[in-house]
Structure formats: C-alpha cells, structure tokens
Design brief:
The complex is a heterodimer of chains A (about 900) and B (about 110). Chain A is α+β, with helices and mostly antiparallel strands and about 900 residues long. Chain A has 27 helices and 22 strands. In chain B, helix 1 crosses helix 4. The chains are: A alpha+beta (about 900), B alpha+beta (about 110).
C-alpha cells in the first residue's frame, strides 16, 4: 500500500528511475554483444531491436502502477477542459442549459421527496391509515367523507380490527392578551386523548391529555405547539401547569408538542381534547360529519378485515338512522395519502414537466455536441489513424459531456437550493412544507441526474463522432457536397424529439393555464372590487347573551359606516369563496321526502340586512332582511336561486316554509322564505350549492364567528387599519384575522392551481426557448455545410427566394414531424390532466391551436436567420473558400 | 515482442523470486541468469520483465535499491523481502504440485 501511494505521489521520479533502469539494460545488452565481438554499431542496433519500443515498454511497466486510470482520467480532464475553454460560447450555453434543467429537476425532487415520498414522522407510519365514512350515492373523485363524532365513538368501542382509533378536527380560539401580548386568533386542533399515543408522539414538555380530560364539560386543558410556545411564551418551560385564556375561558397548559410536529398542518397552534369542543348532545350525533379519524393497523388483522368490520357497523348505524344523512360504509386509505391528497397530482405533473424539460435540455446539449463533433471529424479520424483506440476517443468525448454536466449540476444545485427556498416561502398551501430541505439524498440525486444527463446528452454524439471510417473522413474534403449528411440526419432526429416534447409541455401548460385563468376569473357571484373582509369571533364570556352580540355588531357597523370613504358595511358568517362553512339538511312541509338519502341540504349563512347590497348579490324576488328581523322575530330566511330551482320546481317559494333538521314538526326550526337571491360559490371552482341565509342579528349561537364586509371608495386595504381601530375601541381584547380582499380570498384558495399552472408554464416556455435555439443551431450548421452547394445553385441562376425556401423547408420538416408527434402526445396528456382541469376540455381547441402557433412562430424566427444567411451567400466567395 | 505468455503463464514471478533469492540482482542480470540456468530455453523478454518487477514490488515481495555494479555503473538491484520469501515457498510448492500433476497426465 505504501508503495502504491508512493507511486502516486512520486510518479515523476519513479518514471525517471524506470527510464534509467531500461537504459542500463540496453547498455548491458550492447556491452554483452561487444564482448562477444560484435561491432559497437551492430551491437546497438541489435540490442535496440531486441528490446523493442522503450516508450511502449515504459508505459506497460507503468500500467502496473495501480494509479494508471487516475492518470488517464486526469489527462482526459485536462484535455477536455482545455477544449471547452477554447469555445466559451458553447460551454457557457451548455452549462447554463444543464444548470437550469438539473436545478429545476433537483428542486422539484426535493419537494416531491419531502412531501410525497418521505414517510410521515410518526411511529411505524406504514401502519397508520385514515378511516372515513362513505356515502354510496357519492360517485365523485373524492369518496372520503369526514366522520361524525357519534360514529367515531361507536367504531372505537365496538370494533376490534384496529389497534386503536383517534379522532381530531380543527377549530380556532381567541387567545386573550395577557402581560402586554396582543390578542390573536389561533388555529387549533381538537384531538381525542389517545391521538398522540396512537401517532407515537411524546410531548417535548409536560404530558398529553388523559382519558378523563377528554370528556364533555371536564376541566379545560390545552397543549401548545412548539411554535406558539416559542413565539408567545419565549420557550419558558415553567408555562406548563399555568393557564392560558382561550375564548376568554381559562385552560391549563399540560404539555408542549415537539418542534417537528406539524400535523395536520403547521398552522395548528394548539390542541385541546376532542370532546371539550362538543356538547353532550352533539358528541353522539351520527350525521355531523366534521372529524378525521386516524387508525393503526393491528399486525395480526388484515386491513380488509378491519375496515370490513367498521363498514358493517356503520351500515347498522345507517339503518338505525334512516331518516338522517348517515353514511352506509366506511372507507380507508393510508394516512400519507390523506395528508398530501390536494397536492399529489399537481406535484407529479410538475415533476413530469420538469423531467420533460430535463430531457429537452439533454437533447439540446446533445445537438450542440453533434455539431462540435462534426467540426472535429477530421481530428478524430487522424487520431484514430495514429492508433488511438475507439474506447479512448469515446472516453474523451464523454469526459467533455461529463464536465459540462457536472458544472451544470453544481450550479443547478445552487439554483435548486434557492428555488426550494422560494417555493417554500410562497407556496403556503403545501402540506409537510416544514420537512422540505436540501440534504445529502438531494445532493446524491443531483449527482445521479448529472450522470444520467451526461450519458443521455453525450453518448449519442460520442458514438457518432467516433464512428467514422478513417479513410472516409480524411477524404471527405470540405468541397464534398454531401458531407456530414448522416450527422445532419441525427441532429434532425434529435430536434424532432425535442420539438415533440416541447409541444407536449406547451399543451399541458396551456391547458393548466387556461383552466387556472378560468378559475380565477370565474364569477363567484358577488362584487370583488373594493371589498375588504375581516374575521373576528365573539367569545362566550361577555357575549353570552344574544342581545350583547347584537349590540356589539350594531355599534361596530355604525362606527365603520361613519368612516369617510366607506360606502357600505355589513356582517356575515362566511363570504363567497371563503369555504364550505357548514351545511344542514332541511325539509319542506308538504313536499314528500322521496328518498331519505337525498334529503334537501343547503349551506348555511347568517347575514345582516345590508349584506347582499354590500356584496352586490342581486335580489331576485321578495325582500332582503330588514331591521325587524332580529332576536325574537327571526324566523325568516332568504334562499339562493339554486335552492329555489332545485327544491321548489314549478312553484313560487316565497312565503313557503322550510324546516331545518329532520323533524318536520319542529316549530322552532321552521322558517318562512322571504326572499330569493343570486347564487354564489362557496369556493372558486366548486359547483353552485343551495344556500340558505338567516338573519345574523337573531343572535343565533351558530353566528358567533363573523366576517365584517366593507365596500369602499378606492383601494380597500387602506381601510384595514382604521376599521381594526374601530374594533379595538369597542373591545380591545378582540383579535381580528384574515384581513383580505375578495381577490385575495380567491387567490389563497387557488394557490395549488396557481403554482401548478405557472411552474409548468415556466418549464414549457424554457423548453420552447431551448427548442428554438436547437433549431437555429441545426439550420446554421446545415447552411454552413452547404455553402458551396448554395453558391453553385445561385451561380447557376437559382433565385434568392428559392434558396430561402430550400433552407426553410429543411428546417420545417423536423418541426412539423415533431409537431405531429407532440400533438398526439398532448392529447394523451390532456386526458391524464383531466382531474386538474376546470372549465377546460382536455382537447381544448384554443389551447391546441394557440400552442401550435406559438411553436411555429418560434420555429420561423429560429429558421429566419440561417435562411437569410443562406440566401445572401455570395457565389464567388462561396466557391473560392477552401 | 515478448509477451508474458512466452513463459508458462504466471511462472515469471516464481522465476524472478527464485533468481534473486540468493543475492540481489538488477533487471538485466535476472534475465540473463534465467536464460543461463535454463540453457537458453526460457527467454525473458524485457516487455514482460519490467512490468513483472513492478508488479512484484507493488505486492511487497521484492524491494529495490540503487547500487553500483562491478563496472561501477548505477543500477537498480532487486532483493527478496520476508513476505517475498514466504511467497517463493508457496509458489514453489504450487509449481511442484502442478508440474507433477501435468507429468501424470502427459506421461500416462
């Protein structure tokens, strides 16, 4: 080993010694012969002949040193670097292309790996599944219905196929100001006591909930997330055991969750026991579908058996409550699927797009390399003739590609790090974002991509460059008109593949973009300009009487309406576009219920008299609420056009009655329809849903969480601070959240689509650019090759326009072929993307034609310069050169 | 050109080890000695000799030292190491077994 190393570091002196030894050998041979009486000259000649080629011998001896390959590698690298430095334009282009492609691929891989591939950070995560209810009538893409708490408790008690089951749902609390900290609204989780045990999460401080604490009306306890613990309590461990005021009620902090815990999202700031947010009634309801259920598979029971048991039980519950919307079946899927369900397809689409771009980048570099190889054809042939092995030449060629790709990879990794950071900062909707980071595996992946790209980009040109019979290349004079035709064919083929891929990407991007634009511009049914919304939630303490709530609302509205520049102000619970916000089944007296499974169902909203005029939701018939529809006189509702159309066909719903719930005789829940208003969407891209509006000034308990809606003159965000000051003046304890304009609300709910569309579009545009550069390269090369031929043509009387056409035709042939393949591919991709499209058909003609035109335009521009150069060839010049 | 297979494959190492087991020798002397002892039957080509010497040295079986020849010229002398002695014994034993076996087959 020592010797091995010494040969590596003292190669120079070792070589000298070897030379000296061999010289000595020859001298001895000569001396031997002279001693035998041969003349010195003859002796020298004979000895040399017998000895052979000293250089070769030396090389052979040196090859024994185990570092020969390293030397060869170093030499290859030196030569390749020198060659690359000699053509900086090519090198910079190729490295930039590779950096961009490898960077984008690595960045996307980083995200995909952390979000989709990494197991959840819980104990034995493969055994964790989510259990859902399933309505047999639900045939949509998403068959997984949330679970009612009543059903969950039945499942947990009466089935034994799972190790354990835990439930959680999200809620929010006003965290009161204390010790000078501002009040805030915190998103919270309500989890059953065994949730953390089931997930295998132990708290960083204190303990989790006990079974006894997880009961309706028990002592109030809470756990903090690490971030709330750090942010609000400065990481002071003595906070455990102390109290925190949530919705103005004291909760004892029993523990702090570890830093890495970010389930279901990082936005959840604190946890309370599941039952603590239920009432002794609601906890047993089998039809209030609001919870998620996590279960751990038992090692000795198959998942199928376990879920079959739950399903059978659920069917019994369903049969016992036939008049209620209780699901027939239970369904399951792995927990990770539930966490990433919204972003899985978008991420995979982006990954596929970036893969396409990488491939296009490789083809482009490959194309550039073929051009270089063509220029160096003779060099290769001469070196081959002088005895360089094909493998050596191939290795050298590959080394060049390898260096290009490695440089590209290094820059790409930097790009990927920056890109990942940018994505994480801006893509707030991404689940598991906290787990995304560049680490060893990502670097390894980048190295893998570098090797792959080197092989993809380099092998074809390298083989074609070294695959030339020596004589042919040497005889191939520059004047030979057909020179390099096979290489041109190879380049055209590469170009065709590139264009086909580009077209596929363009079409995918076009479809996603169109559907995104469609989504963003879709009419959610209310005014979107100059409207500001903000949410607050009145706590029970101090506002437990309806009168107190109404008094607060009225003083607030009065104050806000007095602000200069405010045109209108109103209160509602959930504004259009801001989400589902809860629904309820209802009955219409006199309408027979045909099928209990299809009981009428409507989204519920509470609004004040000016809500509709403020949001400019049109009145279709009847009247809006007025100031008399409050407190005791609140048995009036306004319904949406969709509800009227669907449940009152062929009759006038005005002054008819509807009964909320399932008991048609319940007088308290009977409401008279006084108005019909236009439809609104609860979320952009959703179907129109029947909606029923109740007067908010009725002080109904469900209307504690309120959204203030203000229509203003000019930029509504200017009014945010003055309005918040109004609220603070009324109640300094009351935190305000989500100060947003309607477009911002829509923007937040379409963030996934926005990222998918814009990233895929970016990749497609880059690919288009690459394809353009590729086309330009191929045509320029062809024109240079054919200068002589073109010169002769022009000398013989060909018109410039004919020459122009000749080159353009040459360029357009691979473009058109690629286009045809690409359009076919695009059609297939459109079908695959179906689930991501909104208001756009997979074969949208506008997108297809638009993208084809875009490609043709780029192709025309890319061909124009070489074609023009060809047509302006001076025949004398062309024939004289060489 | 001489190639290693001019000799029975793999025996050059054994011959070199044996040749220098008595006293250190330089490359030319090793070749001459082998030719001499074998009555010129075994011709060691330089093309095989020097790579073989390099290989043996890398294995740690021989070591080289620069010294003066009888004629006063600087040359590289090779000598056996302890590991080389052991290796020589192993190879010699193997050769004996092998040649005996070949004898059995050829003479039967």
């Amino acid at each position: 080993m020592q010797k091995t190393l010494s040969t590596l570091f003292r190669r120079g002196s070792e070589t000298a010694r070897l030379d000296e030894e061999m010289r000595f050998h020859i001298e001895q041979e000569i001396a031997d012969r002279v001693a035998r009486g041969v003349s010195p000259e003859d002796a020298r000649r004979e000895a040399m002949r017998q000895f052979g080629n000293p250089t070769l011998l030396r090389d052979e001896a040196r090859r024994v040193w185990s570092w020969g390959w390293l030397e060869a590698l170093g030499r290859d690298m030196r030569i390749s670097t020198r060659k690359l430095m000699r053509s900086p334009g090519f090198t910079i282009t190729a490295v930039a292309v590779m950096a961009l492609c490898i960077g984008a691929t690595t960045c996307l891989f980083t995200v995909v790996r952390a979000v989709l591939l990494e197991p959840l950070p819980f104990h034995d995560p493969d055994k964790l599944v989510m259990v859902y209810e399933h309505f047999r009538s639900n045939l949509s893409e998403n068959p997984y219905n949330p679970v009612a708490s009543g059903d969950f408790y039945e499942w947990r008690e009466k089935t034994h196929g799972f190790d354990d089951m835990a439930a959680w749902q999200t809620t929010s609390f006003n965290v009161s100001d204390e010790q000078g900290k501002l009040p805030e609204v915190a998103e919270a989780g309500a989890g059953s006591w065994n949730l953390f045990r089931l997930l295998g999460v132990s708290p960083a401080l204190g303990r989790t909930f006990t079974e006894n604490e997880d009961r309706v009306g028990q002592a109030q306890v809470a756990m903090l997330s690490w971030s709330l613990f750090q942010r609000r309590f400065g990481g002071d461990a003595s906070i455990v055991g102390k109290q925190i005021d949530l919705d103005a009620k004291p909760y004892t902090i029993v523990g702090v969750l570890p830093e890495w815990f970010a389930y279901p999202t990082a936005r959840v700031q604190l946890w309370v026991p599941y039952a603590s947010i239920k009432t002794s009634e609601s906890i047993h309801w089998p039809d209030n579908h609001d919870s998620s259920v996590v279960a751990r598979i038992r090692p000795d029971v198959s998942l199928k058996t376990a879920i079959g048991e739950v399903s059978a039980l659920q069917y019994r519950i369903h049969m016992e409550h036939q008049s209620q919307p209780v699901a027939e079946d239970a369904m399951t899927r792995p927990m990770i699927e539930d966490v990433v369900s919204d972003v899985k397809t978008p991420l995979l689409v982006m990954m596929a797009a970036v893969g396409c771009m990488l491939l296009i980048g490789c083809l482009n570099v490959s194309n550039l390399l073929v051009a270089r190889a063509a220029a160096r054809q003779k060099e290769m042939a001469i070196r081959g003739a002088l005895g360089a092995g094909r493998f050596t030449l191939l290795r050298e060629q590959m080394m060049e590609t390898m260096i290009l790709c490695a440089c590209g990879g290094a820059f790409g990794l930097l790009l990927a790090m920056a890109g990942t950071r940018w994505l994480m900062m801006h893509w707030k909707q991404l689940p598991r974002a906290e787990a995304v980071h560049v680490d060893g595996v990502v670097v390894l992946f980048a190295c893998g991509v570098v090797c792959l790209t080197a092989v993809l980009a380099g092998l074809l040109p390298a083989i074609s460059a070294t695959n030339k019979n020596v004589l042919g290349a040497l005889q191939d004079s520059a004047r030979a008109v057909g020179g390099g035709l096979s290489k041109a064919r190879l380049r055209k083929l590469l170009l065709m593949a590139e264009i086909a891929l580009t077209v596929v990407l363009l079409i995918a991007a076009g479809l996603l973009l169109k559907s995104f634009v469609h989504l963003r511009s879709s009419d959610i049914g209310c005014a979107s300009e100059n409207v500001l919304t903000m949410k607050y939630s009145l706590p029970n303490a101090g506002y437990d009487k309806p009168e107190q709530q109404v008094a607060f609302s009225e003083s607030l509205l009065e104050g806000v309406r007095r602000l200069p520049g405010v045109r209108a102000a109103a209160l509602g619970t959930v504004v259009p576009g801001a989400g589902w916000g809860g629904d309820r089944v209802f009955l219409i007296p006199g309408h027979p219920l045909v099928d209990p499974q299809h009981q009428p169902d409507a989204v519920q909203r509470w609004v004040d008299p000016e809500y509709f005029s403020t949001l400019q939701i049109p009145l279709i018939a009847g009247r809006f609420f007025d100031n008399h529809d409050r407190l005791d006189h609140s048995n009036y509702v306004i319904i949406s056009k969709e509800l009227a159309r669907r449940y009152f066909p062929n009759e006038d719903p005005l002054h008819k009655f509807i009964v909320m719930g399932i008991d048609v005789t319940n007088k308290k829940n009977t409401y008279e329809v006084v108005g019909i208003v236009g439809d609104t969407l609860y979320r952009v891209g959703s179907r129109v849903k029947s909606t029923v509006y109740f007067p908010i000034l009725s002080g109904a308990p469900d209307s504690r969480r309120k959204t203030l809606v203000v229509r203003t003159d000019g930029d509504p965000l200017r009014f945010a601070i003055p309005i918040q000051k109004q609220i603070a003046a009324l109640d300094p304890q009351l935190p305000v959240v989500d100060v947003l304009t309607i477009p911002q609300i829509v923007g937040e709910s379409t963030m996934n689509q926005s990222f998918t569309a814009s990233l895929v579009l970016a990749f497609a545009v880059l690919s288009l650019l690459l394809a353009g550069v590729g086309l330009y390269g191929v045509l320029s090369y062809l024109v240079t090759q054919r200068v002589t031929e073109i010169g002769i043509r022009i000398a013989l009387g060909a018109q410039r326009s004919q020459v122009l056409g000749l080159v353009l035709r040459d360029g357009m042939r691979p473009v058109l072929a690629g286009l045809a393949v690409g359009v076919a591919g695009g059609a297939a991709v459109g079908v695959l993307l179906r689930t991501l499209l909104y208001g756009t058909k997979p074969m949208d003609p506008l997108v297809f034609f638009g993208m084809i035109l875009a490609l043709l335009a780029v192709a025309a521009i890319a061909s124009a310069a070489p074609a023009w150069r060809a047509s302006s060839v001076d025949p004398m010049q062309a024939l004289r050169t060489e | 050109m001489g190639r290693p297979n001019d000799l029975v494959q793999g025996t050059l190492g054994l011959l070199i080890l044996k040749t220098i087991s008595l006293e250190p020798k330089h490359g030319w002397a090793i070749a001459k000695r082998i030719e001499q002892i074998s009555n010129d039957v075994l011709q060691v080509q330089q093309g095989s000799l020097y790579p073989a010497l390099q290989r043996l040295e890398q294995q740690g079986w021989i070591r080289s030292k620069w010294g003066e020849t009888e004629t006063g010229r600087q040359a590289r002398f090779y000598s056996l190491t302890a590991a080389g002695k052991a290796q020589l014994e192993r190879e010699r034993e193997m050769w004996t077994r092998l040649s005996a076996a070949i004898d059995l087959v050829v003479e039967s």
